[in-house]
Amino acid sequence: MTVFGAGGIGLYFAAVLGAAGHEVTVVGRESTVAAAGRAPLVLTRGGERLEVPGVAAVSAVSEIAEPPDLAVVSVKAWQVREAAAALAPVLGPRTVVLPLQNGVEASGELVEALGPGGVLGASCVVIAQRTEPWAVTCLGPDATLEIGPATADFDAALDPVVAALTEAGVGITRSEDISATLWRKLMLISSYGGVGALSRQPVGVTASCPQTRELVRAAMIEVLRVARARDVRLAEADVDRMMKVFEGFSPDTTSSMQRDLLAGRPSELEYQNGAVVRFGRETGVPTPIHETVYASQLPGELAARRESA
């Protein structure tokens, strides 16, 4: 199995798959490869530290000898096309490709680059933070995944991949409508993360303050209206459902986009609030809250990208 991307999510999936006895190779930066050469991958969860030996790390996909059964794409949303181009030479005709990005566009980009045969759509819920180049901490419960073929042309063997992820402790649900699943996740992450970025506060504050809690709900309703205008089958009950998820998060929870913006790092702003704004304009649906989040955070985002470049 191959994990492309050694951030928190990538290292988490590498660790749980490796701990379940699967052969895992992580594609990461030189610092990741160097750290992997010195010690086992470390996963901390529930206050317990687990060393996972045997997980390999490489800096180039060309170092992978055999096509993997599963390729986990765990880079940030704006890096998906680059990841697809890198992975294409080593994927086999039966490789299942699992994108773990927030937003609704990653699976379509992978289908465009790799073909539809093995690409899934997926909504992943886990809070995993990389603490060192070869160490990750899971804050809260283990990951849950809601998955489904990105297109009707999916023809890879999915059952063995589901079994492997289940053995690793990942909760799996098969979606009957992956488009609705992805938009439901976008409704959640862009709304609470966007309001968190505006207020610079964690969920414990934004969920308990009536004004910010209602702002999150109103932002979710904007996403609902945009999704419906795009013929995505979401209902008002989905807003209630996602609000319960938001309110059930640990009080210290922040979204990855919120953390990146606060730290001055490139973020997924364009693929979360920016996507809601973009799709809203295409369909003629007003999105004033997401417009405010996007416009207010864009200067910092552009500065972070210039600094990164």
TrEMBL record:
Classification via Pfam families: ApbA, ApbA_C
NCBIfam families assigned: apbA_panE (TIGR00745)
GO molecular function list: 2-dehydropantoate 2-reductase activity
InterPro entries from the UniProt entry: 6-PGluconate_DH-like_C_sf, 6PGD_dom2, ApbA, KPA_reductase, KPR-Related, KPR_N, NAD(P)-bd_dom_sf
One GO cellular component term noted in the UniProt record for this chain: cytoplasm
Catalysed reaction equations from the record: (R)-pantoate + NADP(+) = 2-dehydropantoate + NADPH + H(+)
Residues in Ketopantoate reductase C-terminal domain copies: 177-295
Protein name, entry field: 2-dehydropantoate 2-reductase
Enzyme class: oxidoreductase
Organism: Nocardia terpenica
GO biological process: pantothenate biosynthetic process
